[in-house]
Design goal:
The chain is of the alpha/beta class. It is built from five helices and three strands; from the N terminus they run ββααααβα. Strands 1-3-2 form a three-stranded parallel β-sheet. The longest helix is centred in the C-terminal third of the chain and has 16 residues. It is globular, with a radius of gyration of 14 Å.
Length: 122
């Protein structure tokens, strides 16, 4: 039987949980502003998978960093042992149930969530 591609989606953490979210994973280093933990319905919060503070500040800093360079640097961070272990854990979860990556960012398509999604479904 051929392997199926894991179902991994990206949503904003401020959106109401959906019945088909499966495992809800917060992938931001900082807790989202104005969101009560009880309202978030988070199953996992693997901080080892979030971009480092230095990388996040560079990307969102004055003049803002280039997304392609951000992606390259973040992919390098994902190769670190702690991040690779957390990535393997999410891959295993995605094999058994849908996985929803949650972020507070206003533009998920140009954030670390797209890099993570690609790493999980490749």
């Amino acid at each position: 039987m051929p392997a199926t591609t894991p179902v991994v989606r990206v949503r904003r953490v401020y959106d109401a949980p959906a019945p088909d979210d499966g495992v809800r994973v917060l992938v931001d280093r900082l807790w989202p502003r104005g969101l009560a933990k009880a309202d978030a319905h988070i199953d996992e919060w693997p901080k080892a998978l979030t971009p480092s503070t230095e990388l996040r500040r560079w990307y969102h800093g004055p003049g803002e960093g280039d997304y392609d360079e951000f992606r390259r640097r973040y992919e390098a961070e994902l190769a670190a042992p702690d991040a690779a272990e957390a990535l393997d854990r999410l891959r295993a979860l995605a094999e058994t149930a849908p996985l929803t990556l949650l972020t507070a960012t206003k533009h998920p398509e140009t954030s670390h969530t797209e890099v993570l999604k690609k790493a999980l479904t490749a």
